[in-house]
Amino acid sequence: MRVVIAEDLALLRDGLVRLLTAHDFEVVEAVDNAPMLLNAIIRHRPDVAVIDVRLPPTFTDEGLRAALEARKRVPGLPVLILSQYVEQLYARELLSDRAGAVGYLLKDRVGDVEQFVDAVRRVAEGGTAMDTEVISQLLTRHRRDEPLARLTPKEREVLAMMAEGLSNTAIAARLSVTDKAIGKHTNNIFAKLGLAPSDDHNRRVLAVLAYLEAEPR
Amino acid sequence: MLGPPAGLLLNAVTGVAAWPLLLLLGGCAVLVPVGGLGRPPLDRALRAVHALAGLHRARAARVLGRRMPARPGHARDLAWLAVHAVAGPAALFAACAPYYAAVRILFLGTVERGWIVSLTLLLAIFACVAIGLAAIPLLHTLQARLIELLSRPSAAGRIRELAESRAAVVDAQAAELRRIERDLHDGVQGRLISMRMNLGLIKKMSDADPVRELAREAYDTAGEALAELRALVRGIHPPVLADRGLAGAIRAAALAQPIPVEVEIDLPARPEPPVESASYFAAVEALNNVAKHSEAGRAWVRLGHADGVLRLPVIDNGRGGADPASGTGLDGIRRRLAAFDGTLAVHSPLGGPTEITMELPCALSSQKISHS
Q1: Average pLDDT value over all residues in chain B
Q2: Is the peptide bond before A56 cis (omega within 30 degrees of 0)?
Q3: Is residue B367 over pLDDT 60?
Q4: Which of A14, A203, B160, B341 is deepest in the core (most CB within 10 A)?
Q5: Does any CB of chain A come closer than 8 Å to the CB of residue B234?
Q6: Sign of the CA dihedral B261, B266, B271, B275?
Q7: B78 touches chain A (CB under 8 A)
Q8: How far apart (Å, rounded) are the C-alpha atoms in residues A217 and A213?
Q9: Which residues are bridge partners to A102 per DSSP?
Q10: Which residues are CB-contacts of B75 (< 8 A; sequence separation ≥ 6)?
Q11: Is a pLDDT exceeding 70 seen at residue A113?
Q12: B76 with B151: CB under 8 angstroms?
């Protein structure tokens, strides 16, 4: 798989290159700022871009903006955003084009090599990878008058794991139940959220989006 | 809002009412030390004076269309009351005088009743009425200007106010630095020491199993240290505030609340960074108060800027009864805002709803808010 990396701290950039190369990714370009990132993406059309949220020249959310811009020019381009902190606001913005293939993880997660590499692969294949911190922030909320209120507690638990980007098999393993039981739950979730049968990938993205957006704006 | 004629009438009535109030105050002032009456009657009379002055200041603010100074203190309110006792009724008399003159002219018995005399008298009546009509709004505005002038804080008072708010800012900053120092010391620093110890042990070890165990421990500790640093940074200056400015940061804070919060923002540009930071933390504190104490099911935040003032109301449909005097949270917000000459108004009847309005005088930079 071909990867573009954008990270301004040399130490971390080199670490990411080494880590992904060791796991059979081909790092086609590693850049340290947003304008170069856009160029690299357009030139290489990578399978996935791993981007630090904070990049020069402004050192604010430059990386996120560049990612959103890149996805405008290359629709559906898989991007994985790394950040020192997570904001639900940003998670929503990333998911808002409903194309999926996005990840949003705390930088700390890079330390958990297997899971991180898994997340990169999942995003490259069109899935999602939301940080558990985004999910746990959502779970602390009382929910009242929303479509999600119709879900059972178990279905909500499954939806939270779907948002993290886990497959049915992975969810089944975590809850120690069969794949079939999870399949039933996910079908119920799709039905309750009014998501018509289409390809499963897309429905999963839409369900996650419903989950993140289940608040008045 | 009352029109100028009704306003003049109100001024006259309260002006007349000021006389017994002044007498009462004089009596209390004499009797309190002599007769051992205690302070309650005097305090009650003073409260009445402040209420009356407050009412007229609020009216004046509407008449003149600008902000009045906040409560200027006993001496200034008493001075205004004495002036008002004369000026209030006098203004009404002055406004009525031209009409009185007009009526007198109307019923003037003249010997000769030529058309020239009649015409002259008629013109005189018109002139009187015209003067009367012009005088009413003029006198009304003058009354408002009067209380504005008398409420304007003296230079000494303003200096005292500034010195107090500056001392509060310095105190708050020192306390904040102490908190950060303590958090770093108790948290991250401690964890780094423990990691270094583990790694030091690992260096000298040859057995794989204990090495793996110690490495796992160091790995976990590093994760905890990162989580703590993240929380600490968020408390000092939330990254989203730097990224997206006040508007984005308030939206993000609203999303993090346990109850649904509707956000309405009308801000054409960004305020200066210190104002942004103060308003942001004040808004977050207000939202935290809602979540902690109000039992509300829903909250609203509005953010707007008009006439050089940033207005930030936070409203909830909870049980009300919020008291800035008892809650440390509201007092904290007040102190935060005072550093920028900002104010906090709390309207929270028992049973709710609660409306907390924060106001900060500030200019907006020309820098556009990008990306909302």
Answers
A1: 83
A2: no
A3: no
A4: A203
A5: yes
A6: negative
A7: no
A8: 8
A9: A79, A128
A10: none
A11: yes
A12: yes
Size of interface A-B (CB pairs under 8 A): 49
- Phi/psi-derived region of residue B102, left when phi > 0, alpha when psi is between -120 and 50, beta in every other case: alpha
Q: What are phi and psi of A77, to 5 degrees?
A: -60, 120
Query: Nearest-CA residue of chain B relative to A110?
Result: B223
Dump the DSSP string for B323-350: -TTT-HHHHHHHHHHHTTT-EEEEE--T
Give the span between the Cα atoms of A185 and B330, in whole angstroms: 46
pTM: 0.66
Mind listing the pLDDT tens digit for each residue in A156-169?
Answer: 888 888 878 888 88
Beta strand ranges found along A151-213 (DSSP E): none
Contact A132/B at CB under 8 A: no
Torsion of CA A173, A174, A180, A182, to 10 degrees: -160
CA–CA min distance A65, chain B (Å)? 9
Tell me which residues of chain B, numbers 282 to 301, contact chain A at a CB-CB cutoff of 8 Å: 297
Predicted local distance difference test score (pLDDT) of residue A57: 83
CA distance A87 to chain B (A): 7
Read off the pLDDT of residues A20-44 as tens digits, 9 standing for 90 and up: 999 999 999 999 999 999 999 999 9
Q: CA-based angle B290:B293:B299, to the nearest 5?
A: 25
Alpha-carbon Rg for chain B, nearest whole angstrom, is 32
pLDDT tens for residues B269-321? 888 888 899 899 999 999 988 888 888 888 999 999 988 889 999 999 988 88
Contacts of B16 (CB under 8 A, 6+ apart): B85, B88, B89
By DSSP bridging, strand A48-52 and strand A2-6 are parallel
Alpha helices (runs of H) in B107-207, residue ranges in sequence order:
115-151, 155-183, 190-204
Whether residue B290 contacts residue B315, with contact meaning beta carbons closer than 8 Å, is answered with no
Q: What is the pLDDT of residues B15-58, one digit of tens each?
A: 888 888 888 888 877 776 665 656 677 777 788 888 888 888 88
Helix (H) or strand (E) holding B304: strand B299-306
pLDDT at A95: 82
Residues 6 or more apart whose Cβ sits within 8 Å of residue B70: B343
Residue with the two structure tokens 């993880």: A105
Structure tokens at B174: 């020192």
Distances (CA, A) of A82 to A33, A67, A91, B137, B176: 14, 11, 11, 65, 29
Phi and psi for A34 in degrees, rounded to 5? -70, -45
The answer for A 57-86 residues in CB contact with B (under 8 A) is: 60-61, 65, 84-85
| DSSP letter string, A108-158 | GGGGSHHHHHHHHHHHHTT-EEE-HHHHHHHHTS---SSGGGGS-HHHHHH
Pick from B223, B234, B255: which is nearest to A88 by CB?
Answer: B255
CA distance B186 to B312: 36
